[in-house]
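Consider today's protein:

***
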Amino acid sequence: MRQIICPLYGKPCEQDCPDRYINQPEGGCLLTTAEELGAQVVVLDEASGTVGCIYTPHQSQSGKGVI
């Protein structure tokens, strides 16, 4: 079974993480799902634990971008 890496700590998801999906044995949470979908997870305020996700448009391989 593959282990999902926490985007905040760079370590495998902890069993007791309060945000962990309860129905996935390998772990994961909203942040790991967002990261898998292409978001960049950013810590906005370390003291309060506030994080955000940034999605940026990708240019096509031809360099013309998306219309």
Notes: Helices lie at 30-36. Residues 17 and 29 are 9 Å apart (CA to CA). The first strand starts at residue 40 and ends at 45. The two ends are 39 Å apart (CA to CA).
